[in-house]
Amino acid sequence: MDFVKKNLALLICAVCSFILACILLYFIFSTSAKVKKSSAAVETEMNFFNEAERDGLKLRSAPGEELENLLQARRNFEAAEKFYALSREELARRYSLDIKLPGNSPEAVRRINEKIRQMTDYVLKKGIVFNGLAQQFQTIVERGNINSAEFEAIFRQLYLYEYLVNKIAEAGIKTVVSLEWLQGFAMEEADLYNITPVWLSARCELEQALNFLNQLSSDERILFYIKSCSFTAPDRYSEAALDYAALQREGQRQNLPGGGEDFGMDGFDGAPRQRAPRAAARRSPVRDASEREGGAARGQQPERFVKPEPKRQDNLVFEDKYVALELRLDLYEFKKLEQE
Fold first, then answer.
1. pTM, full prediction
2. Which domain does 121 fall in, by range?
3. pLDDT tens-digit profile of 294-327?
4. Could you give the residue ranges of the DSSP H alpha helices within the chain?
């Protein structure tokens, strides 16, 4: 203790020196790590310049001149911009509608009424069952007056409606449940195109439905985008099979032999007396095939259903497969450059 008391100041200085040394070591190591990281980044940049010089790339231009790389980048940008403009022009040329609008309201009503009559005659000629054909346009005709601001939207939808009716007839579909414009006469507007959502419900053969979808996908005048599609086949045989199975079970219950014992007159002790079993009746053998067939026919029970022969049941595979088609699609119309 005397040594500590005499050298207390020296010990305090030693402890402080040790703490300062630790702090200095920490800063030295952290600075060294930062220097190594910076050196690696500088080395990477130097490698880039060395490789560019080795490959003959010009990173500096002569006085009064422009770098060849910048010139090439500008040429690439101009080529890409030209390709974009040509692509838009081609899409607008192929997938845009050029509809002639009427001059006044009476002419518009007359043209709509004429289109409805033409579509009705066409549907009847093709044998298509289409209840509610062009119902939304019939409402406009009954109103008798159309605002000139509505001409473009109404006649655009009328053109698309007639186009889809023709596609349905070309595919061979004979029953249309509904053909609806989900947003009425409005459409979704985007930067490059307009979208018209449509809902179609029809009953047809599976082959006709697939043919209709293929025609929409390969159409060259209107761009159709199929968002969702479902096929539902009706259950034609389950109910008949269940009725037939129930009839078979009922017949089996009715044809079960009666069980139990056959008792005759009671005995003297009051207990029932069992009859002796009867001798089996002898029957003459069936002499020919005609008698066998007659006996078999008399023994059969009348059936409720007429069952086809096994070979004819194979024809069910080749029957027409009718399905309920539920289709949700969008019609795309690309804008022309001058419309922006």
1. 0.58
2. 105-234+323-339
3. 444 444 555 555 454 544 445 555 566 788 999 9
4. 2-6, 8-55, 68-94, 105-126, 135-143, 151-171, 206-217, 238-254, 289-299, 310-313
